[in-house]
Amino acid sequence: MNDLAPLAELVDSARAEFDAADTPAALxxxxxxxxxxxGRITELLKALGALPVEEKKSRxxxxxxxxxxxxxxxxxxxxxxxQAELQAQLRAEALxxxxxxxxxxxxGLHPVSRTIExxxxxxxxxGFDVADxxxxxxxxxxxxxxxxxxxxxxxxxxxxxxxxxxxxxxRWLNLRTHTSPMQVRYARAHARRHAGAEVMxxxxxxxxxxxxxxxSDATHSPMFHQCEGxxxxxxxxxxxxxxxxxxxxxxxxxxxELELRFRPSFFPFTEPSAEIDIAFASGPLKGKWLEVxxxxxxxxxxxxxxxxxxxxxxxxxxxxxxxxLTMLRYGVNDLRLFFEGDLRFLSQFR
Length: 350
Fold this sequence. Notes:
Blueprint: H1 4-20, H2 24-35, H3 40-46, H4 53-92, H5 111-125, E1 129-130, E2 136-137, H6 139-142, E3 162-166, E4 172-175, H7 180-193, E5 203-212, E6 223-233, H8 238-252, E7 258-267, E8 270-280, E9 290-298, H9 300-305, E10 314-320, H10 322-330, H11 343-346
Parallel strand pairs: 1-5
Antiparallel strand pairs: 2-4, 3-4, 5-6, 6-10, 7-8, 8-9, 9-10
Helix pairs in contact: 1-2, 1-4, 2-4, 5-10
């Protein structure tokens, strides 16, 4: 018992020091005083070498039991300190789980996208298809096929951006200046599909999309949107153009109190050609004529480039700017606001 009493006292002493340690660093210092290289238990184990063999065995077993008890106390205190640190951290970072969760704000369609969808829906109800095509175009589709051969003065009205690529004829490719090339692509595909037919189905198509010109101010942008329309058949007249576009404008602006007028103009791909103006009967724009589109009867040269006979097939084309229509519909006075990405402006249309 006399041999065990000092060991029991040593274990009790270790327990008291471990319990008094209130930080991991203090606990490690206390551990060193018992289990370190010069610790009290380590010194007892070193002293075994001077004892007789039989006494060494029994004394060694007693010291090892005390050592295990001290190590158990150390482990328990380490866990207690770690748990206390965790609880303190949880208290410091406490969350009120009764609060509503933070959700991502809901997005919405861009106002110009809303306008394009509206245009497609209205013309779709009139039997028009929607065509889409490349924004990088060849010289032939963008200019020549539309009755604007090389060096034609009308090309200067549509100064554009060119890319570092050439077509099969060695001409630079360009970013399309209008979506009219899609009229050519669609009509040629339509003509091939119905080649040999006794009566070719009419062509009714709109082509909305992005276009590019070297132009930038409050009402113009280097990148803007356009929507071209085409109706070709054997008996399609300018009267049909007036009816179709009048119905479209009244449906788009949701009012029958709206007038249209056609002003003579010039476009190389139509003859005769006309600008289309509208005037509202009420509201802030009451009585003001506003240009919204260009139009005309498709030029015979363009009809030939469609792969059709201009003596048999006739029709009209028009082109309008969804960006401008969006400005009129929502009362926006600067086109650049649509493309600056300012959420304070765009969130109004959500």
